[in-house]
Specification:
Helix content is 45%, strand content 21%. By secondary structure, the protein is of the alpha/beta class.
Length: 145
């Protein structure tokens, strides 16, 4: 099972990332093996990963979130906490945790990385990475039909 932990905050961006991810795994067995876990914000992603990482059916985890810089230092604290939280979990786990949390200076940059152009959609890129990882681990062919 592939766990996808997705932030609901900045949902227009995170939904775009998720749609890109789904598009990259369409026509494969991966799409049948997804479990979506929604969390309120990016800060909540490491906790959700930690709670589910050791589930017996969890093969790997994909994180999807977006933090956009505002006028205060809040952005830096959230970005650091999320990145460090995921990094610490990654170092302690034998399972892959893919980091798909955008940290952008403005909404336009986030939109560029989560839009309908799959050549720049970071969710789509993560889906391709999942295919490559599982191709090695499962020894399966995930080519689209």
């Amino acid at each position: 099972m592939i766990y996808v932990v997705k932030s609901l905050f900045n949902s227009d961006i995170t939904d775009g990332l998720y749609n890109g991810f789904i598009k990259s795994v369409e026509g494969t067995k991966i799409k049948e093996d997804l479990k979506l876990i929604d969390v309120p914000g990016a800060y909540d992603i490491p906790g959700a990963v930690a709670r589910n990482l050791n589930n017996e059916d969890c093969e790997l985890v994909v994180t999807l979130g977006c933090v956009i810089k505002g006028e205060t230092d809040h952005y830096h604290y959230i970005c650091d906490a999320v990145a460090n939280g995921i990094m610490n979990l990654t170092l302690k786990s034998s399972k892959s945790i893919l980091f798909g949390v955008l940290t952008c200076q403005n909404k336009s940059l986030a939109s560029d990385r989560s839009g309908n152009d799959m050549s720049s959609n970071k969710g789509y890129e993560l889906g391709l990475m999942v295919r490559n990882i599982l191709l090695e681990e499962r020894n399966e062919n995930f080519s689209n039909h």
